Amino acid sequence: MAQKVNVLICGSGSAGLCAGLWLSRYGIPCTILDSRSEAMKMGQADGVQCRTVEVFDSFGLAEELLREAYHVLEDTFWADDGHGRIVRTRSTFDTEPGLSIHPHVILNQARVNGMMIEAMGKLGQGISYGYLVKSVAVDREKVDEENSYPITVVTEKDGKEEIFRANYVLGCDGAHSAVRRSLGFQMIGDSTDSVWGVMDIYPLTNFPDIRKKSIIHSSSGTILIIPREGGSLCRFYIQLPPGTNAKSVALEDLYRRARDIFSPYEMDFAGNFWWSAYSIGQRLADRFEESNRVFLLGDACHTHSPKAGQGMNTSLQDGYNIGWKLGSILSGLSPPSLLQTYVSERHKVAHELITFDQNLTSILSSSSSPSSPTPTTKDAPQTNGTSKSEKFTEMFLQSARYTAGLTASYNESVVVKVTAGQKSLASKVDVGMRFASTQVVRWCDAKAMQIVKALPADGRWRIVVLGGDICSERSRERLHALTRYLSSPESPISIHTPAGKDIDSFIETLLVLSGSRLEVEQDQIPSFFFPVSGKWGMKDLHKVFFDDESYNSGHGHAYDFYGTDPNEGAVIIVRPDQYVSMVTSLDDHAGLGKFFAGFSLKQR
């Protein structure tokens, strides 16, 4: 007899785990199947971009991640000097200063996934191992019926067939996805004749930058060095000669190639932890969903080379995008049509990733020109050096924001609304992109904190009100008018918050004021920003902040950071996944109501 499940996640890679973690946060159980007999012990991915660390921070997991990981702070570039020797041509930051409050780090994918598994376990969500997905079928006559379980998934465990019936299925089962094949979706793209080796090794060397992320272009080939956590382990990505058959590559071939590229520096190997060889391919699925019931995530819908460090990160953020949307739908807060924004948003990101990877691979695999570079450690443009090294260096510097995971931009939809004049209100805020964080001072306890810390991944929407100086009569009147609307029966908070739930359970409103907090008393601030909520029915005093000097942490200059005039203020709507949905004025009450009505169900 078939088991009925609300959400079936096929695969426990980064995408599936992130989606599962979201659902567990909503209190929605799901079934996660994995073909492995146990949790991943050794993952092939290791780069954790800034945006992924921000995602972990939103789940309350960043502290552990940062403690265990290697922090990538400086990158160096090396090239052939024309005489068979490699020399350093440039040193520079890995992440542009001020781009994120978190660094780019390196940690094995198995450990990254393990943190999400542990977090889900604390909320009662587990993984079922040893299940091989055989086929997926959708009954299209039932897809429009609520709780019709229109998807049939046939699996095999211990040689026996087990069948699941599901309302929603997430295909997170990798590049050879059985979910994708069952639905007849095609992967569009090509393989190249470029072959690379990769190995995690313990190097014995006098190369000075072995504990920095380094890119070496020599007459003998190209190596990318990625230091690993633990202090000794390093990953080498090694370009192999044209015509190499990846299946015929031996470990000694990689050792020999590495020694040639590092000349004149010594390079030997105390041990090898893992190695492989692969040919590069970039492919994108022709479809990401079926009947708004089955969705592909991660490698199941996009594959590329690993050198840009985007695979695990992009996959995880697929899950971060769809998880809250599915949670909102299954909680009765939004209609199923919200899931179409997953397709439009993440297909765009995947297409951009494939294009980036093709450009990166082309530059890394091109032949170099052996002119003599001028060694330097200054972060300034160089006029000499191999054309190959120069091209890669310039591409790296230009694409630093992309590789940090901070350029994803979602087009207009029911959850991304572009308004007239938004740039005059918050000129440095980009609608459709992640909400950048800066320091503010919390009013109730004088704590200096990053404002994003007040936006954890708990499923709530945020209305961030930059209300200006409350000591100004005009600002005070506009702020009171806004709170009267938000408190009224016509407001989106009243209409879309489920009965019996705390008033801030679906939409939470945060206030950031300008001016000196020491000159303001609580009774000057609208009581709307101190709602009664929580287990004990107490006033929540933690929703009001000031753009002011802190005693020990300086000034965050939040209004300047967001490009907002304190005399005008702004309202910024932030999604549960910390992306900016809309920027509007304090006076646009009807616009707020119309926006939330576009994707939220009436509750009362």
TrEMBL record:
Q: Name one GO molecular function term.
A: FAD binding
Residue ranges of domain Phenol hydroxylase-like C-terminal dimerisation in the record: 409-603
* Domain of life of the source: Eukaryota
Which parts of this chain are annotated as the region Disordered?
A: 364-388
Q: Where is the FAD-binding domain?
A: 4-356
Q: Where is the composition biased (Low complexity)?
A: 365-377
Q: Which family does it belong to?
A: Belongs to the PheA/TfdB FAD monooxygenase family.
PANTHER family given in the database record = 2-MONOOXYGENASE, PUTATIVE (AFU_ORTHOLOGUE AFUA_6G11480)-RELATED, TRK SYSTEM POTASSIUM UPTAKE PROTEIN
Kindly provide the name given to this protein in its UniProt entry.
Phenol 2-monooxygenase
According to its UniProt entry, this protein's organism is Coleophoma cylindrospora
